Amino acid sequence: MARIRVVTDSACDLSAEVAAERGVTIVPLSIRFGAEEFVDGRDLTTEEFWSRCKASDVLPETAAPSPGAFQEVFLAAADDGYDGVFCIDLSGALSATYQSAVAAAKAVAERIEVRVVDSRSVTMGLGLMVLDAAELASAGADLDALESRATELVSHCTVYGLVDNLEHLTKGGRIGGARALLGSMLSIKPVVVLVDGVVEEESKQRTRARSFQYLADKMRNSPPLSRVAVAHGAATDIDTFLALIDDVPSEHPLIVGQLGSVIGTHTGPGTIGLCLITSS
Predict the structure, then answer these.
(1) pLDDT, tens digit, for every residue of 185-209?
(2) Structural domain boundaries enclosing 169
(3) 48: which residues sit within 8 A by CB, 6+ positions away?
(4) Which whole-number Å values give the CA distances from 101 to 17, 90, 91, in the listed order?
(5) What is the pTM of this model?
(6) Shared domain check, 8 and 119
(7) Residues 122, 9: contact at Cβ < 8 Å?
(8) 115 and 167 inside one domain
(9) pLDDT tens for residues 20-71?
(10) How many folded domains does the chain comprise?
(11) How far apart are CA 11 and CA 94, in angstroms?
């Protein structure tokens, strides 16, 4: 039976406790507020990030991990006697994180085999894929099986985002095809969707309540669901949204968590992300 270590990055929004429980190693990105830089999850907790985000006049920025940060983790797996490493990262269209992991995999090739997959996703869309990989790895799946499964899940994963406004997406340069929303950004509560790893316009809703209902209907009308997660950026009305979807069935239990610093940097407070993986 193969022993494979599963690795991802901190954009997955899995808690440290869940990652440790599932045997997943998380390589952190960095968060900058002006001249101050923090290692995500080590120097700055999610709660501290949102508190600082609401109080700061400076919008935060993110920086991808260096290849060396991934290389250190990959070599640690070799030292621990693992047969290989399976690494799945946030969308390469949004960050250089995937490219750093690929460079690191090449650098350690003589010590340990590493497969790196671009999830084309973010937040708990990535997190749900990581959980799937961790379950397969714990059951003895080899690198070929893990890579095949993750590649399949890319096309079955959808991430919707209800953002309170587009300021963070615009200034962070991650607006993608949702740029058409800018002209009316003050009068709408936009819903965006990740399409092939980039942010696109999904819907223009006049109120936040209508956006909630729109997302709930998208989930309810979806093909059969395997995994579902909701990640929110200190949204005070998250319970209202959860009440709209609590009767929608899925193969695995709904996961609810905080939207982390990496994605929160580009979406801002009040964001609610709905992450779906349909059954394959």
Answers:
(1) 556 788 999 999 998 989 888 899 9
(2) 157-278
(3) none
(4) 23, 11, 12
(5) 0.91
(6) yes
(7) no
(8) no
(9) 999 999 999 999 998 999 999 999 999 999 999 888 888 889 999 999 999 9
(10) 2
(11) 11
